[in-house]
Amino acid sequence: MLETILSRDAFLLTIELKIFWLIAFGYGVCLFLFFAHLFTKKNSIGNAATGILWGVVVAHAALILFRTFEAQRAPFQTLYESLSWFAWSASITYLYAARKWKDVYLAGIPVTLLSMSASLYALLSRNPAVEPLSPPLQSWWFEYHVILAFLSYAVFVVSCSIELVYLLIKPRLEKGLSYNYGLDLDNIETFHRTSFKLVLFGFPLLTFGVFSGAAWANDAWGRYWSWDPKETWSLITWTVFAMYLHAMTIPKWKGLPASMFNILGFICMMMTFLGVNWLAKLLGIPSLHIYAV
Question: Which domain holds residue 86?
Fold first, then answer.
């Protein structure tokens, strides 16, 4: 009986890995096409990249559901699972935001680059084995905290991508240069405004994520806050995005300074998600969150 169960689990995991490799390849194809659009300026290529990305995202959603069925729990306990969830959530958020843009595809480059990189990192260096839910995660706060946090992360990824495109294209448009990327002096500010709206949506999610994490920590370890490295960096990330939103209300800061805060917030978010794990292990810093690595 035990051998039958183990054989079934190994078979399901093999199928999952094969599908995940195809999805990672799909993200790579989309990245290639978005780059091709960058160099050829053909909207047909950008449309093809977007269409394929929709297909990849649907397939990835099916894979996440498959993992949920396979593990019989929420599919984001380990770093392998979290990287998969991060890649999917960033791409689906980009596709949702991009519906309002006509013939603008440049923001797809950083998003698909991150999604492909996260997928490959999971496949090449993380253990894909299905593990039972560890004791600290056996709380009803677990799903709420992770879903809120990763939704805010996905929003910040797309916001930063738009910010980067804006910073690269706006100065050239002001010099009278046209690049045929669907952006001009008439619509680039509207395009850029989406970046602010995304952070305005993501910041409350991050706030609820921090508070739910504190409530979860109290359930798991008996205290709301312990200045754990991941907790500290989540607070830093929250503070930087709060500064960005504040900067957007001040005319003198609304331009480049606010954009820098947005990009810095993205860097801090990635540090919270991945960098803290590496530093804690490298420097031997005690952390209650290393179990998720």
Answer: 1-133
Tokens representing residue 265 in the block: 């917030």
Both 218 and 282 in a single domain?
A: yes
- Phi and psi, residue 227, nearest 5°: 55, 35
Q: How confident is the model at residue 282, as a pLDDT?
A: 66
Number of domain units in the chain: 2
Domain co-membership, 128 together with 155: no
CA distances for 90 relative to 149, 151, 165, angstroms? 12, 8, 17
Contact assessment for residue 231 and residue 225, using Cβ atoms and an 8 Å cutoff: yes
Handedness of CA 109, 111, 112, 115 (dihedral sign): positive
Helix runs in 41-101, H state only: 43-71, 79-98
> Mean pLDDT per segment of 10 residues, for the chain of length 293 residues?
48 85 97 95 94 97 90 82 94 94 92 97 88 69 83 96 94 78 87 95 93 79 77 92 95 90 96 79 61 52
Of 116, 133, 150, at which residue does a domain stop? 133
Residue 160 contacts residue 262 (beta carbons within 8 Å): yes
Residue identified by tokens 């994490």 is 213
pLDDT of residue 137: 65
Check: CB of residue 157 under 8 Å from CB of residue 111.
Answer: yes
